[in-house]
Design brief:
By secondary structure, this protein is mainly alpha-helical. The protein contains 5 helices and 2 strands; from the N terminus they run H-H-H-H-E-E-H. Strand 1 and strand 2 form a beta hairpin. The N and C termini lie far apart (35 Å).
């Protein structure tokens, strides 16, 4: 049985799309994500996706491939969230971004 995901109050729908996209791809940049239909349907441009990636980095759900870079990959915590094993409401900002 698949567990239900537990979003944090700080999360938006686009955050889940970013995590899902990065779980399927080795890495992605905000501009490559912007070109995908799931982000176009949400009206998410690369600037907004970059902003949301920053929030996900601060909570260690995604990580930049190169420190300070604009290409991201999902972390083990991000994968745990997608599986329903991690309650995102308990994640604190670490301020590393």
């Amino acid at each position: 049985m698949t567990q239900m995901r537990r979003m944090g109050r700080w999360m938006y729908t686009v955050d889940e799309r970013i995590l899902e996209h990065l779980s399927e791809e080795a890495w992605a940049s905000p501009s490559t994500m912007e070109a995908e239909s799931e982000f176009q349907q949400l009206g998410a441009d690369s600037e907004y996706i970059e902003q949301r990636c920053g929030q996900l980095v601060e909570r260690e759900l995604v990580a930049p491939i190169i420190n300070g870079g604009r290409m991201y990959e999902i972390t083990r915590w991000g994968l745990a969230y997608l599986r329903g094993d991690l309650d995102a409401s308990h994640l604190q900002k670490w301020g590393r971004y």
